[in-house]
Amino acid sequence: MGPDGPARSVRDEDWYGRDLSGEVLEGVELVDVDLTEARATGATFSGCTFRGVRFNASAWTECAFTGCRFQRCVLFDAAFERCKLVGSTFDDCRFDLVRVERGDWSFVTLRRADLGGVRIEGARLREADLTEVRARDAVLVGLDLSGAELGHPDLRGADLRGSDLTALDPRAALLDGAAVDPDQAAVLVENLGLVVVPA
């Protein structure tokens, strides 16, 4: 991206069902582009802006979206497998039925995102901003959340098993019905300031 903004702008394009495997886009602005049912393996997007883009039912495998910005995007039923989204920001996006399998989402900003019902497994979200995230009934298992911002999240009914909860203050979170494993329960008790004494 140059000093005068994105190097190129793509607007109102219909990329329905397109195969974007191996594509490399840098500093490109995509506005109101339809990526419904698009497929890609090994595509790279660096410093791109996605505004009003529809990712419905799209599938991304081993793709990179680094330092990208997503604004008012719809990601209904989108799937990300082993993708890298380091440093990307999501603002006012819809995530209904999104599935994430592994991958590196470190330093991602998902502040106030509605992640209710999403499924994220085995991904790295180190130092991600998840402040006030709404993840009711979400599956968030095996996640590396070390150093993540987890202020005032709604995790009611979420499956959190195997995720790193050391950064979570249970006094500032909604956790009714959330599923955790015994090790996580001990971490949450310690985060309350209690001392776990062996029987």
Could you explain how this protein is built, in words?
It comes from Isoptericola variabilis (strain 225). This is Pentapeptide repeat protein. Pfam families: Pentapeptide (PF00805). InterPro entries: 5peptide_repeat, Pentapeptide-BTB/POZ_domain. The protein is mainly β and 199 residues long. It contains one helix and 14 strands; from the N terminus they run ββββββββββββββα. The protein has a six-stranded parallel β-sheet, with no helix packed on it. Strands 1-3-6-9-11 form a five-stranded parallel β-sheet, with no helix packed on it. Residues 1-6 have low confidence and may be disordered.
Major sheet attributes: 6 strands, parallel
Q: Order of SSEs, N→C? A: EEEEEEEEEEEEEEH
Kindly report how far apart the N and C termini lie.
59 Å
> What is the gyration radius calculated from CA atoms?
18 Å
**Beta fraction:** 15-25%
Strand pairing plus helix content: what structural class? mainly beta
Helix content percent band: under 10%
Per DSSP, the total helix count is 1
Tell me the total number of β-strands. 14
Low-confidence blocks of residues: 1-6
Report mean pLDDT, rounded to a whole number: 95
What coarse outline follows from CA principal-axis ratios?
Answer: elongated
The largest beta-sheet arranges its strands as: 4-7-10-12-13-14
Organism: Isoptericola variabilis (strain 225)
Protein name: Pentapeptide repeat protein
Pfam families: Pentapeptide (PF00805)
